Amino acid sequence: MKIKYIYQQIISHISILVVAFLVLSILFTHYVETLVYTNKADELTEYGENIIYDLERSRDGGEQVLDEYNHVLSGRNIQYMIFNESRRIVYPTGGRILLKDEEWNKIRSGQAVTVKQERNRFEQAVTFVLLPYFQHGSFIGGILLTSPISGSREMISQINQYLWYAVLAALIVAIILSWVLSKVHVNRIKRLQEATSMVSAGDYSIKLPASNFDEIGELAEDFNEMVQKLHESNEEIESLENRRRQFMADVSHELRTPLTTINGVIQGLKNNMIPDEEKEKSISLVSKETNRLIRLVNENLDYEKIRSNQVKLIKNEIELVEVLEIIKDQLDLLAETKQNEIRVDVEENVMIYADYDRLIQILINIAKNSIQFTENGIITLRGRAGYEETIIEIEDTGIGIDPEDVENIWRRFYKADLSRTTNPYGEFGLGLSIVKKLVQLHNGEINVVSEKERGTKFIIRFPKNHLEK
After folding, report:
1. Which carries the bigger pLDDT value, residue 103 or residue 300?
2. CA–CA separation, 377 vs 337, rounded Å?
């Protein structure tokens, strides 16, 4: 059976209140009853002590005192009688008083006896008090005072009646308050439920009002953080999916061209469609395209090894000027094809702690990019010693990078300009991604500063040898 949460809240609140009211009512009724009977017994005791006191001071035997008290007490519906040491009533009438042995023994020993409710020995239910009467230290009798409990009962019943009225009013107010508070809490939970349904439907824009007032407010805050993370994860998934599609397109484009060229040359050779004087040129073309395919595949495999930390670096102290001169020698011919000049500017005796082969790979990748996007310009290779680090800068005077593309160039398969037939950052968009991974493996940092049409500068920082240990 399904019970709505708001009704569960109300039932639980009212159940607790009812139990609390019942317990309090019983305790209060018992307290009032005890208080009424105690007050009545105290009143009877006080009258009895006054009667005994006045009898002791009376000179005429006390008849007048007893009559006066009889007149006063009868108006208060209190009756009393005096009895002697033989249990015989000496005032107001004769006969014997009905006392239990333990009661008689108590008053003979000088103790007062109080019975708050007695129903059997008198014509009606009463509260009575027995007080001993001594003269010159000798027990000569006692005094019995009785008062019907009907008046006390009426008072208690009236108090109970008002108590039940108060309980009923309190329950009505409690039900209203419980409904209002339950409605507030249920509405907050409903908002969470509705928001959860929207998130499950793919809407990550929902945001709940959060607070530290209570657990529901904290839950709303946690919910907002969860939705934000889901939103970021969803964006990342969409980005990965878009890059995957782009990667497939890149792979198709990059591999199709050399494979088509190779296949065409092979078919031409097979069918003797290529003149003899062109065969050597065609074979050379096939060799270049094959090498290009191998380079593309190796670059992918290299990236996967670097990304999964499967590359082991062998670091040594290397003279930086030697490395930069090697980069210049290897790329001078490539730079000349675009009328570029490569310059080396290195401080004396600057050493760098790195893996030689991977350092060459890093610098070749960056320098090639600089050459590719610079015409009739200058590519400068700088090196200097910093504080506890070695700094390499590769700066060009080329076309630069758009500000919105600067942070994206490190992504795998990213292309800054999809309209270009050649990928600007490595043929599979892996060049700079590999560079960054290799720099991080050296515990170094790499940053880029660029401005459109004003060139680009890559800054690489490698820590000193003693910081690596």
Report:
1. 103
2. 12
Domain range holding 221? 215-306
Last residue of a domain, one of 306, 330, 351: 306
| pLDDT at residue 309 is higher than 90 | no
Q: Are residues 296 and 381 in the same domain?
A: no
CATH of the domain at 43: 3.30.450.20
**Amino acid in position 140:** I
Please report the DSSP string for 245-258 in residue order.
HHHHHHHHHHHHHH
pTM over 0.85: no
Local confidence band at 418 (pLDDT 50, 70, 90 cut-offs): very low
Structure tokens at 31: 């307290």
Q: Has residue 187 been placed in a domain?
A: no
CA geometry: angle at 421 spanning 420 and 427, to 5°?
A: 105
**What is the rounded average pLDDT for all residues in the chain?**
80
Could you tell me how far CA 184 lies from the centroid of its own chain?
21
Last residue of a domain, one of 112, 136, 154: 154
| pLDDT greater than 60 at residue 428 | no
| C-alpha–C-alpha distance, residues 384 and 352, integer Å | 10
Contact of 48 with 143, CB cutoff 8 Å: yes
Structural domains of the chain, count:
3
393/293 same-domain check: no
Q: Within 13 Å, how many C-alpha atoms sit on residue 368's CB side?
A: 16
Kindly report the number of other CB atoms within 10 A of residue 372's CB atom: 19
Bridge partners (DSSP) listed for residue 148: 126
**Starting from the edge strand earliest in sequence, which strands make up the sheet with 389-396, in order?**
341-346, 378-386, 389-396, 456-463, 445-450
Q: Hey, is 319 helix, strand or coil? A: strand
Which range, of 295-309, 332-346, 444-458, averages the lowest pLDDT? 295-309
Note the maximum CA span of the chain.
Answer: 169
